Amino acid sequence: MSDGQVTLKHVTKSFDGSQFAVQDASVTIEQGEFFVLVGPSGCGKSTMLRMIAGLEELTAGEIHMHGRLSNDLSPSKRELSMVFQNYALYPHLTVEENILFGLKVRKVSKQEQRRRCDEAVDMLGMREYLKRKPRELSGGQRQRVALARAVVSQMPICLMDEPLSNLDAKLRAQMRTEIRQLQQELGITMIYVTHDQVEAMTMADRMMVLRQGEVQQVGRPLDLYNHPANDFVASFIGAPPMNLTTATVDNSGTLHVPGAPRPLVMDQPLPAEQEVQLGIRPEHLHLEPQEDSDWELPVHLQTVEVLGNETLLTMDAGGADWKAKIPGQWSLEAKRQAVLYLNSSHLHLFALDNGKNIGASLSAPVQEEVTL
Amino acid sequence: MKQAEELPRRVETVDEAVKRYRIPSSRSFWQKTVNYRTALLYLLPSLLLFGVFMFYPMFYSLYLSFFFTDAQGDPTTFVGFENYAYLWESASFRRSVLVTIIFVLLTVPASVILALFLALLANEKLRGIGWYRTIFASTLGMSVAASAVIWLFMFHPTTGVLNAALQALQLPAVSWLQDSTMALISISITTIWMNTGFSFLILLGGLQNIDEHLYESARIDGAGYFYQLRRITVPMLSPTLFFIITITFINAFQSFGQVDILTGGGPAEATNLIIYSIYREAFIYYQFGPASAMAIVLFAAVLLLTLLQFKFGERKVHYQ
Ligand SMILES: Nc1ncnc2c1ncn2[C@@H]1O[C@H](COP(=O)(O)OP(=O)(O)O)[C@@H](O)[C@H]1O
Ligand SMILES: [Mg+2]
Predict the structure, then answer these.
(1) Of B307, B229, B300, whose CA–CA distance to B61 is shortest?
(2) Scanning A21, A68, A117, B288, which has its CA 20 to 30 A from the CA of A355?
(3) Do A325 and A310 form a contact (C-beta atoms < 8 A)?
(4) A60-65 and A6-13 strand pairing
(5) Quick check: A153 and B218 CB within 8 A?
(6) A47 Cβ inside 6 Å of ligand 1
(7) CATH of B97-141+177-316, one of 1.10.3720.10, 3.40.50.1360, 1.20.1540.10, 1.10.220.30
């Protein structure tokens, strides 16, 4: 049984025959999984989702749904439901008629329609506006109607294209949890598109990061966060993004970082001297030495923003713009020198040309204190 | 407890708030009406134009309909409802009413359905569809006289292209404009053809305003083309359809040019629409009194029917 499973094999789409909208994407999405497609606007997320839905033809590659090759299957035969970004509610029908539209098309019996509608309405708490038209609803209520349509369809796969992007921040956070809960309650496969990495990180079982139609990395949110495959994933996931700066590796595997008093050492020397990108997450930077701090970097502070329980610093680190997120309230003066302390095992190295994670780990050997 | 009682009580109703806290405005009547006076200034040119060229003639017609007139159209004797009574008795006018009703029934539904059909075709995303859109809309740019003359040639019994086509199919020739049944049908065909461009364009615009995602959602649910047409397109298009139906309807009552050029109301008054008989009464027989009475009757009928249409048609319209 592979009901609810979706497999993409070398899926490729080009609208104009020269540029890729989606380039050679392969992945297997398992039954019951919450799978998120994430990437900046225009990277091909919707196109990929629409190919899975059958609304867009593939230029090359294969789509297998429920274990069967489905390239030429019509959307209605793919046994899926879809929630659109603008909800695609029928403006001339009441909420109830909207919810039942699909069931009527599929000639589900009247009793069954009633039962499923009641169930979905209770699940989503929307009984009081069942008789209203969509234009009389708030954004959040419309969102619920769109979800209810997906729920009553009882399809094993649900596709959602940026369903929360029209909601305000608070409602968005609430709906995130609700959608996640709904998916788990129903036990369906969810393929969810968003440009918001926070949504991806908080909702996904696994996620796929796309950039200009190309798959960058597929994996569990924390794996992507801790082991980004390249500099794009590193800076796309996490807010504020990972700090990057250019450094030089010499033949012996020693890394010279602009502005740093002490070099770093790689565990696996590179074949030749070259420039690389050094990355570190803002929360791994500290203003005071920690127990595990083994490296320090002098910077020039630009701004200091106190956000209640944490303080956000922007700074110039050897020519690159960096950010640091430090727990607690720090009333610091901006526009002055400071020293950042960090643990070198939190550093990431990326190749400068293609951005790939070099996969080397770094250490900071303690030097003889010549400067004293 | 005591402290709580001393707290000032908040007003509970709007009335109370008004009574207790409303302060008189310091603006004078002149200041308060400044917006209305500005609006009136902007309206003045169109009010003037409408007044001179529409309202004045309308009221003058009403006035004339109560008089006998001389050949110049000046009122001579007040006759009360005599002119209306004359119409009521007149077999020719009753014939005109009947012909007009048949004409409206022949043209309005056919025009709207044809335009909707063409708009649906032209709304498909196909290569070169722009050409078809231009062609379908082209009758919009043609004057009534030009269209009527084109059809006059096509309807010609011996040299017309229509009879030539019938002949090629081994079918008997038709007396398009000479036969008293066919004449009204021919006029209707011409009118439908003339209506198409405008209706097509407006309906196409309406179709393009419908969110594509509605259809995609319906496709995922498994709705076929005609189900989508019935349950999505037509309801979503209903405000546009309603507008088109109303306009076509009013236009049908005012179809004059094609009658004048193609049949002149004949044969044997078979195409003598009310609007055409008004013209004949006034400018051929110089009977301005009865002509004005007819104009008033026509105006009242169109107004009444349009109002009824709004009252009953609008219920089925889904405005967004
Ligand atoms: N129907 C279309 N015709 C031509 N190009 C398209 C079409 N749909 C999307 N594209 C292009 O494909 C790329 C990916 O679009 P899309 O999948 O909508 O991005 P996303 O949803 O990630 O923002 C974009 O460059 C977009 O311009
Ligand atoms: Mg998109």
Answers:
(1) B300
(2) A21
(3) yes
(4) antiparallel
(5) no
(6) yes
(7) 1.10.3720.10
